[in-house]
Design goal:
This protein is of the alpha/beta class. It has three helices and eight strands; from the N terminus they run E-E-E-E-E-H-E-H-E-H-E. The chain has a domain of 89 residues: Hypothetical Protein Mth938, Chain: A, CATH 3.40.1230.10. The radius of gyration is 14 Å and the shape is globular.
């Protein structure tokens, strides 16, 4: 059994449910969002992009049907080694032309339902990976 000290300086997905994802925001990380002072949680109700140290809440596709190749520009700007795409309540695969910018950049992308992407994000951050999660709401 391996025990590891959680790095509290990084953003984590604390909880998720239909219509809301709660992000644990470490003290000292300043974000222009409403953060509960007691719990340190920020509750989001629309899709967003996050890394271990950055949170972008202005990501435009509200649904999988609205997702286009241009929506990956914001994700690629973060220069991750891997992208997790959470497609909402169910796993849906984007058309090849939508994923073309990611493949042209030579980056890996894992496509899964948003709940699975939330769990995977936390694991990869714990491993020290440079991962970006682009999550559509459940």
């Amino acid at each position: 059994m391996k025990f590891a000290l959680e790095n509290s300086a990084e953003l984590r997905i604390h909880a998720y449910e239909a219509g809301e994802i709660s992000i644990a925001v470490p003290s000292g990380l300043e974000l222009d969002l409403a953060i509960d002072p007691e719990s340190g949680l920020c509750r989001l109700q629309r899709g967003f992009i996050m890394t271990a140290r950055q949170l972008y809440t202005d990501w435009q596709p509200a649904t999988f049907a609205e997702l286009t190749a241009a929506h990956f520009d914001d994700v690629l700007a973060l220069k991750p080694e891997l992208i997790l795409l959470g497609t909402g309540a169910t796993l849906q695969f984007p058309a090849a032309d939508i994923l073309a910018p990611v493949h042209q950049a030579g980056l890996g992308i894992e496509i899964m339902g948003t709940a699975a992407a939330c769990r995977t994000f936390n694991i990869l951050v714990d491993e020290g990976r440079n991962v970006a999660a682009a999550l559509l709401m459940i």
